[in-house]
Amino acid sequence: MLQETSTRTTSESPAAPGRWRATGPALAAAVVVPTALVVGWLMPRGPVTTTQALATVALGLLVGAVAGWSTRSRWALLLTPAVFMVVFEVARAPVDGPTVDAPRVGDLYGVLTLLAGRGVDAVLMLLPLVVGVGLGLAYARRSGRLPARAGGGWPGRVLLAVGVVAVLALVGGLLRPASTEAVTDAAGEEVPGSIAELVPVEIGGHEQWLMLRGVSTDAPVLLYLEGGPGGTGIGRMRQSGEDLEQDFVVATWDQRGTGKSVSALEPRDTLTVDRMVQDTLEVTAYLQERFDEERVYLVGSSWGTVLAVLAAQRSPESFHAVVGTGQMVDPFETDELMYAQSVADAEARGDAGHAATLREMGPPPYEDTLDYPGAIASNPAWSAFPGGEDYNAASEYPASLFVAEYTLVEQLRGMAAIAETYDVLYPQLAGVDFRRDVPRLDVPVYVVAGAYEAPGRDVLAQEWVDGLDAPVAEYVVFEQSGHNPNFHEPGRFADLMARVHQEVLSQ
User: Fold this and answer.
1) For the chain, percent of residues with pLDDT exceeding 70
2) What is the CATH number of domain 195-335+394-506?
3) What ranges do the domains of the chain cover?
4) Which residues, other chains included, contact 190 with Cβ-Cβ below 8 Å and sequence gap of 6+?
5) Is this structure's pTM higher than 0.90?
6) Could you give the CA distance from residue 392 to residue 374 in angstroms, rounded to a whole number?
């Protein structure tokens, strides 16, 4: 009897079960591999909504716990996330885009894209997976299926506790809802008849988001189109758009694939310039119906000016006026001019290394859209504007993403959305030249340029305005601004829009 008891105890001890040592890892693989395949198929760009992120965290904890309990080995802390990511990458291999293609680590913008894509994936997927493995190991040890010494002692317990706290903090952040505060008066009281909303609208078959803010719903409506392609204007307008809210209902639209509309990126083959122009008109129609307005004011920034001009050309009866800031006319000619100046400026500064890098890249256009920032946006001259007294640096990326109007996922994915949407839309602008294609507009046009704007942009914008046949074709220079005068001198821009409205009323 004593011998039978001893034999049974030995067979169930952690040191004996040879079969479990083989079946345990097999069970872990049977759970981890299919999960990674499904996640890679359903979410090839990683979780991009709060629901997806929460589901991924929960799934990671569960799968990790099964892997830790079944393998009963600390190696699972390394092997489980490694296997998951390899399978995940294989599953999404057919998908294209800067954040899912082979990483570029040889330049700043490649590294930033890596962090904005796979770095966020690691936080949302791998962190819960590793913590889950730790919990599975802890359960196996607590149930007597793993020797106490295999848990790593008190350092292992401390690390697990830190991981659990990190996951709980992540979940808490993911559960925070987006919101926009009420429009208030000097006493901090909500202004009667004001509007402050974040609203999803069905546009072009996709849910896309608008932020609506204004002192009075009876005020004229202003639709703002952010630049990029891929930029989100909601945070920028919250930081520097309050002056406009005094005279307008300001509708800031997160275009498809950007900001709060990041989940609307797919399918990429339907994301075209023509579709974006049509989306602009559908957003306009929504605003006209909601606020009972026959026309709205259309303000575009950079890429947003392309949409604004094309939308006004297609449907001039929908708009009081078109206002462009950082006006684009021929984006690819602008790139060539800015590239040449970037090389010249690097040489003038004595930065031979940067000049050589640019020369090695050669002039645009580029097949890899990640080359554009390095060739053009890296020139420090483009950010040397002084800004007005009311300039708020928090209106610049990425600081503008950290406002309450975005969920945590939208904040984490904001910069990746710029890279992905830019990659789809920007190459489609080849051949665009408003001097040739838009010599006439049947609405008043105001182009606002910064005195510190890149010559590659302002020279072409001035040329287009000078030859434009329109009821009004005015070129305005803000002396302390660069590419975004509406944010670099927001008070002055609000005054300009108030003047434009008065001029429209007097016509």
Assistant:
1) 93
2) 3.40.50.1820
3) 17-175, 195-335+394-506
4) 182, 183, 184
5) yes
6) 25
